[in-house]
Design a protein that fits this description.
By secondary structure, this protein is mostly beta strands. It is about 0% helix and about 60% strand. The protein has strands spanning about 1-5, 10, 15-25, 30-40, 45-50, 55-60, 65-70, 75-80, 90-100, 100-105, 110-114. The strands form two sheets. Strands 2, 4, 5, 6, 9, 10 and 11 form a seven-stranded mixed beta sheet that branches. The chain has a four-stranded antiparallel beta sheet with strand order 1-3-8-7, with no helix packed on it. Strand 9 and strand 10 form a beta hairpin. It is globular and about 40 Å long. The model has no long low-confidence stretch (mean pLDDT about 95).
Length: about 110
């Protein structure tokens, strides 16, 4: 499984971005897809996850602001980020779970200016 993330960039606080992560390769039976982020000097943290059936969960810090979705026909997962805050600044990574093996995308930088 290969994951290609895109959509990061520089945005002012209060703005929005949408991240995309396209899966390719042996994508049969991909289960959960997730977005993680890692800020400088901090550990990588789970931001949002979506199961193959569409169930979602979010970190408390992004609830009500971020929305994860997936388009199974396009093998793509999205992260719509609204009301961005300075503390959302991080490298965002997409992750896919297939047969209990984790696959990672290359990361996309999100920078929120205050």
């Amino acid at each position: 499984v290969q994951l290609q993330a895109s959509g990061g960039g520089l945005v002012q606080a209060g703005g929005s971005l949408r991240l995309s992560c396209a899966a390719s390769g042996s994508i049969f039976s991909i289960n959960a897809m997730r977005w993680y982020r890692q800020a400088p000097g901090k550990q990588r943290e789970l931001v949002a996850a979506i199961s193959s059936g569409g169930s979602t969960n979010y970190a408390d810090s992004v609830k009500g602001r971020f929305t994860i979705s997936r388009d199974n026909a396009k093998n793509t997962v999205y992260l719509q980020m609204n009301s961005l805050k300075f503390e959302d600044t991080a490298v965002y990574y997409c992750n896919a779970d297939q047969y209990s093996t984790d696959y990672w995308g290359q990361g996309t930088q999100v920078t929120v200016s205050s």
